[in-house]
Amino acid sequence: MKRWGGWFAMIAVVFLAVPAMAAMTVKLGVVTKPGSAQNIAAEKFKALVDERTNGEVTVKVFHSASLGNETEILQQIQMGTVEMGVITSGVFDTFDPIVRVIDYPFLFRDDAQADAVLDGPLGAEILTGLEASGFKGLCFSENGFRNLTNSKRPVRTAADVSGLKIRVMDSALHNAIWQSMGANPTPMPWPIYTELEQGVIDGQENPLWVLEVYRFHEIQKYLTLTRHVYSPHIAVASLSWWNRLAPEMQSLLQTAMKAAAVFQRADNRARDADRLRMLEEEGMQIEKRPDIASFREKTDVMREMNLYQDPRVKSLLARMLAATR
Which Gene3D superfamilies is this protein grouped with (predicted)? Predict the structure, then answer.
């Protein structure tokens, strides 16, 4: 009995050493439907938090724009009525122009270079900078390299883009990119299938997973692998809410979201070859080797635009270009 008593005492000490965790529900908003890149990161985060808190913290994922478009989700996060979100980087530029640096055209050569920069000091500088707008930047997951689709004609050079009505997200930068190439950019919230189907817009630009999940091959005949912007998703929390959390909880959530992002990036990249094959089999005409130099030439003017003249933004862009050239 003495031996068993000693074991019970040791178990009690270990149990009491684990800090008590108050039950909590975290609302996390994404604009896309289940199976999409944001949702994969969000659901992995939800599973990790459930596991690591023994179910005491519940992450409730609001998908399919049930909380509004991405700008509206960010506004709710600012106000603290929604705790977290996984949001496309381009949308942040209406809140903080520093994020425009990430979406500078043809900045990143490949996935590995994007990871090295965004997971390093330059990426950390962007995440920290978001605090001035009321966001706690947690990490970057992946949307992917953006490519152009349209229903009008094959596009091989920048000249072929002229006059195309292209949907862009609510971003001054993305609007300027397509203006510089002679297109007619049209800001429009997500989703856009009906607008493409009805011919309200001629085309759009997004990573390959979007074409697969939203079945754009049904309504867009031409795909051009422009890879003009590497587009991450940024996982953010309401700063006012975050600052009320215990340090242990902050660490747990931060670590779980980073793990979810690493998982989602690998998952997304592993599927791209099959996606491209499927789109071709479904009848899309794919320009796999467009004249990228012609696109670069058109967008080189971006660096001198007012979008990048804020001293903080200009400095970071110069350092980003130095790190990626």
Answer: Bacterial extracellular solute-binding protein, family 7
